[in-house]
Amino acid sequence: MTATASPAVPTIDRHRMLIGGEWVEATGGATFESENPFLGAAWAEVPRAAPEDVDRAVKAARKAFRDPSWGGLTPTARGHLLRRLADLITREADRLAEIETRDNGKLITEMRAQLRYIPQWFHYFGGLADKIEGRVIPIDKPGMVNFTREEPLGVVAAITPWNSPLMLATWKLAPALAAGNTVVWKPSEFSSVSALMFGRLFAEAGFPPGVVNIVTGFGSEIGESLVGHPQVAKVAFTGGDRTGQSVYELAARSIKPVTLELGGKSANIVFADAQLDNAVRGVVSGIFAATGQTCIAGSRALVHRSIHDQFVEKLVALGRTARMGDPLLDTTQVGPITTRPQYRKILDYIEIAKGEGATAVLGGGPATRPECGAGWFVEPTVFAGVNPAMRIAREEVFGPVLSVIPFDDEEEAIAIANDTQYGLAAGVWTQSMRTAFHLSHRLEAGTVWVNTYRATSYLSPFGGYKRSGIGRESGLTAIREYLQEKSIWIDTVGEVPNPFVQR
Q: Which CATH class is domain 17-262+468-486?
C-alpha cells in the first residue's frame, strides 16, 4: 500500500478521550492542537485532560479490574481477547501507520512495518495469559502445604513517548492485559491521535468498558495526578531520563513499582576486521533511520584508528545520498523532527559541538531543500574530531547527529563505550567470534547487537542499564513486571499449637 502524499493545507480532525468505555471531552472542554511536523501546521484537536479526568479514568480502570466481566475472566478468555485485538490491528495496520506518520513525522515505510509487526505482541502475550503458573513448595514444616499464585497488580499507568507511540505502548499494554491488569494510557501530547484511533479497537475486540482508558494532555498538568494516584498500582514509562527520574521519585512516595525505559547514548563499535560496507550501513541505520529520534540511536561511532579515515569517507558518501522529504512517500529516507522544541534542541547541540571544536564533515544545520517544505528538518550530520569528553559525545541529542570517535585497541573501545551514564544498547562490527563474545560480555548495555543494529522482537527482553532504565519489556520476562506473587499456607493437621510461638 502506498500512502497519499501530505496535503498542502491539512484539515483539523477533532478527537475525544476514552474513559470507562465512553468517548468524552476533557473537563471544561479544554483542547490543544497536534501539529503535523512535515507541514509545520496543526492537523488535529485533542482533549486537554485535567487532574479530574485522570481521577475519572483511574476509577474507571479500578472498577473494571474488580468487575467480573474482566476480573472474572479465565486467563484463556483474556488471551482470546488479546488475539482478537491482534487480528483487528492487522486489519487496520496501514491506516494506523498513516495516522502515526501524520502525527509524528516518522517514515510511512517504518510505521507500516511497525504496525504490521505489533499484532505479534498481542498474539504472544495472549498465548502466555494462561501459562502463568504458581509453585508448590516442599516446605520444611510438618503438616503444612505451601503454594504460590501469580496475581495481577491492578491499575497500570502506561505513559508513552512520541517517537514510536503505538509500538512502545504495545510493549506495555500486551503484557499488562495478559496478566489481568487494567490500564490508563497517557500518550505524548505530540502524538495522541494514533493512540486515540488505536483505542477504538478495544471495544470492537470485546474488552469490557474501562479495561483500557486513554487520557490526553500535558505531562506537566496531569502526570503527577496519574503517577501519584492512590489507585494506580504500577507505572510503566518510556521517555527521557530526567522525566523518568521524576516519575520514579513520585512513584516511590506511594511505594509502587515502575518499569522505566529511558534514554541512551549508544556506542556502535567498528573494528579493523569488520566488513566495512556493512558496518557503514549499520552505523547509518543506527543514527539516521527514524531521523535519530530513537532511544537506541547509535549516536557514537567508535572506529578503529587504522580504518577511521576510510570509514568516515564511506560514511559521508552514503549519508549524502539520503533522500529527505514527505514522510508519507515511500521514497523518503529521512523525515522531519517530530516537535518544534526538539528541532531547536538538535540545532543547539550542533552549535555546541562546533563550539567545542568538533568538525561537521556532513550536514551541520537545518535542511532547506525544497522537498522539505515548511517542516522541521535537520540535515543528517556527522561530526569528526570528537573526543569522549565533549557534550556531543556524552549527552543524548535525539536527532540525526553522529559523533565519530577513534580508538586504538579493544580495551580503549570498551572504556569509551562504557564511560557514559546510559546503558541501553551497543553495536559491535567484527568478523572475530572472540571479539564478538568478549565485547558482548563487557559492554554495559541491556542490548548488544553484533553485525546488525536496531533489531527487536516480542520474544526478546528489552531494557537498559544505569540511567537507561529499570525492568524489561517484551519476552517472557515482561509479563512478570505486571504480576505479584502471593504465598498461601494451609495446615492439614487441624490442631493449633501454642499460639504464642511462631510456627
A: alpha beta
